[in-house]
Amino acid sequence: MKRVPGLLAGIMVLTVTSVTRLSAEDWTQFRGGQGGVSDEKTLPVEWSATKNLRWKVALPGRGLSSPIIVGKRVFVTACTGYQQRRLHVLCFDVSDGTKLWERQFLATGSTQCHPTTNMAAPTPVSDGNAVYALFATGDLAALDTEGTLLWYRSLAGDYPDISNQVGLAASPTLWKNVLLLPMENAGESFAAGIDTKTGKNLWKVARPRGINWVSPLVATQGGQTAAIFQTGEEVSAFDPLTGKVLWQLTDRRVSSVASPTQGEGMIFIPGSEFLALRPGKEGGQPEQLWKSPKLSTGYTSPVYYQGKIYGLTSIGLGCLDARTGKSLWVERLEKPFWATPVIADGKAYIANEKGLVVVLKLGDQPTILARNEMEDKFLATPAIGAGSLFLRSDKYLYCVGAAPKK
Prior knowledge:
Oligomer: single chain
Distance between the termini: 50 Å
Helix content: under 10%
CATH architecture: 7 Propeller
CATH topology: Methylamine Dehydrogenase, Chain H
Number of strands: 33
Strand order of the largest sheet: 1-27-28-29-30
Strand content: 35-45%
Radius of gyration: 20 Å
Low-confidence stretches: 1-20
Mean pLDDT: 91
Number of helices: 1
């Protein structure tokens, strides 16, 4: 690996001795471990500056990354400084918002991007022992939960032809000790499996060149685990340990923004026509079960929940039957939407760009339970953990939930 300029050089590796057990309450990656669904039962429906807002803390700068929750800690990234060249990883106490630590790095890759996005667009991911933070500059940092740097890598240094045109925003995903890295872009484009202990490549596969924001999905069906990578014209399944191609779906107009999800042995692919697939055997094409033009989700990703698929369209929240693709209903909501909805206890929490968070009771017919007006702008997908809903803007991180019992 090439030498990294700035605050750090090369690749730095330390030994990790602490072990943290993840719980069902943790939310460790973009959309959490269940594709935007939480088992939490006690989230508030209504909140305000004086009701059910546990805490609100200032962030040092911009970010589109979602917060993640591990135990009693919440982690988030941000970017500041001239041309967003200063990159931040921050850790807060879940109970009261106290900042426990902050680490800063100097960007080694390009910071030029569309003004809507920024360098802290990808969501970090955690295995309970460490936090892996990817930035749009191609900088990749691994820190333990106490903030100690384990290793650091400049992907722009290793692969100088990577392009940050418009802005890289896809988030990494974990499978065991493999960090699945989506680096599809207009320059050197690839998917990679990174060893979480060392930061070195386990595998690297060339991908179609083109601007893409889709985060990978790990799907285990029929005893086979696949890392699903999606671009605007194809879907590829790789062995997450070796990078071997398991199957591919090509020549399809699928989304280059919204990420896939899964449920009931199916994989759901967003696009101009929403696709439901049954994974194929190694070397074979997946079976297409149904397709529907009724759920074009735009910038947001779909969510599977209890036999149904939910997604934000240009009108509002749409609902399809997961087995048949039949459109069941559409609830009109105020747009625009950038954040993917999250679901807990039969309720969808939907944040729009204007600061409105709608709580919608799901069912045969949806019911709006609350409209929570917040004087802020939300583009990042919310997170759920530790009995609370977490929302981040460019300026603040909010924790919505009842005060913890003493």
